[in-house]
Amino acid sequence: MARMKTLIFLPLFFLFGALASAQDAPVTIKAGTLLDGKGGVAHNVTITVRGGVIQAVAPSSGGTTYDFSRLTVLPGLIDTHVHLAWHFGPDGRYEPRDPSPSRLMGYAMENAYATLMAGFTTVQSVGDAVDKDVREAVARGVLPGPRVLTCIRAITSPNLTVDQIRDTVRKLKADGADLIKIFASRSIRDGGGQTLSNEQIQAACGEAKAQGLRTLVHVYGADTMMVVAEAGCTSAEHATFADAGALAALAAHGTYIDPNIGLVKQNYLDNRAKYDGIGNYNAEGFAAMEKAIPVDLAMFKQALATPKLKIVFGTDAVAGAHGRNAEELIYRVQKGGQDPAAAIVSITSLSAESLGLSGQIGAVAPGMAGDLIAVDGDPLRDITALRRVVFVMKGGKVVKTPTR
Q1: In what order do the strands lie in the sheet with 397-400?
Q2: Pick from 261, 299, 346, 398: most CB atoms within 10 A?
Q3: Amino acid 15: pLDDT
Q4: Maximum CA pair distance of the chain?
Q5: Averaged over 289-293, what is the pLDDT?
Q6: What is the pLDDT at residue 142?
């Protein structure tokens, strides 16, 4: 009987051994052009990935698993501000409160997949409890999607005492939040005025820092941005009405800025019929967004001219924008005048730094995660090449390959 069991299990042993060997086998990618995510450019190099990690980057020689001699290879892209749960319902209209939890999860995973196929291997999804479920499903390898960081839910109420805000931060950490999101301003559709007091902002960012968590602050006004910078918050989002003083304050305190100027408002306007009549998506709200677009652009140009200001990449992608995230960077370069090389750094290593993950993602170098994409064209010469993502590897696993 013992011999019979041995004979039965031997084939299984060899099968699992073969599978393990296949998974451990190195994957080699020849890049005609490599943008390493930190401003470096190399040509005709081979990247070796094994066990989900980049093992080597060396001059090309011999055969490779993937020959991208005519393509540009970059680190997986990073979007520091998305809303994976936002979707259009079965009737084609925006559905802010989906009555079906399972359907909501389905929409969120659909949006995650579209984002991954567009070359984004890491996102920060900030605003819905289902983001945690998406994070866990992707991390388990059950479904394909980008690496997800989430706040689970945001701090919004101006009625909370500073002690209640601190308690909320601690509760969010206990619930598994990767960061704390704070609404310090109204929506741009409602004018963008400050909502939380200076003391409340300071309490939220101070407690988050004490708990080892980053903070992302929804903020529009210059005065409020000064408070955000001085409170030691990690990142200021939107920042439409920032002036030179506010931008200088952010730079002085090392606060990241994520301006969201080229996709989210344009997406709302393009999909107006799908949002119109829901909450503050009304005539006044759409007029306010349309009016803010040139203000955003002027602010961004001023931000580019602000010494040492760290401008990261985020889109605020909502329903209708998922998978089109790169349009934000294209707009920043084509309309805002950002240098393409700096733009590539912002969407890779600088965004990784803002997430506290600079030692893991955002660059092509030995020891970094095997997050790689290939695009048809050279983004340094034509930033629209980021629309043409033909290959995606996340954590060493290939999830998209060229169709030709």
Answers
A1: 53-59, 41-50, 27-35, 66-75, 372-375, 389-394, 397-400
A2: 261
A3: 40
A4: 82
A5: 98
A6: 84
Predicted structure pTM score: 0.93
Is residue 237 a part of any domain in this protein?
Answer: yes
User: Do 69 and 103 reside in the same domain of the chain?
Assistant: no
285 within a domain of the structure (yes/no): yes
Q: Within 175-282, where are the H helices?
A: 198-210, 222-230, 244-252, 264-270, 272-275
Could you tell me if 146 and 174 lie in one domain? yes
188-219 b/e with 16+ CB inside 10 Å = b? bbeebebbbebebbbbbbbbbbeeebbbbbbb
How far is residue 313 CA from its own chain's centroid?
Answer: 7
61 and 136 together in one domain: no
198-210 helix and 222-230 helix, angle to the nearest 10 degrees? 30
In angstroms, the Cα distances linking 358 to 228, 345, 351, 377, 378 are 23, 12, 8, 26, 24
Looking at the predicted structure, is the pLDDT value of residue 23 above 60?
no
The confidence band for 159, taking pLDDT boundaries of 50, 70 and 90, is very high
Give the angle 366-370-374 at the CA atoms, nearest 5°. Answer: 110
Q: In the prediction, which pLDDT does 98 show?
A: 87
Structural domains of the chain, count: 2
- pLDDT tens-digit map of 51-70: 999 999 999 888 899 999 99
- Considering the domain architecture, whether residues 168 and 62 belong to the same structural domain is answered as no
**Short-list 309, 307, 301, 302, CA closest to 244:** 302
Residue 9 domain flag? no
Q: Report the C-alpha gap between 160 and 392 in whole angstroms.
A: 44
Residue 335 sits in a domain of what CATH number? 3.20.20.140
CA 37 to chain centroid: 15
Specify whether 348 is located in the same domain as 367. Answer: no
In this prediction, residue 11 carries a pLDDT of 44
Judged by DSSP in three states, 155 sits in strand
Write out the residue range of the structural domain in which residue 39 sits.
25-75+363-400
Q: How confident is the model at residue 17 (pLDDT cuts 50, 70, 90)?
A: very low
Paired tokens of 331: 């707009």
Predicted local distance difference test score (pLDDT) of residue 404: 64
| The pLDDT of residue 373 is above 50 | yes
Coil, strand or helix at 397: strand
Distant-in-sequence, close-in-space partners of 348: CB < 8 Å, separation ≥ 6: 37, 38, 74, 75, 76, 77, 78, 362, 363
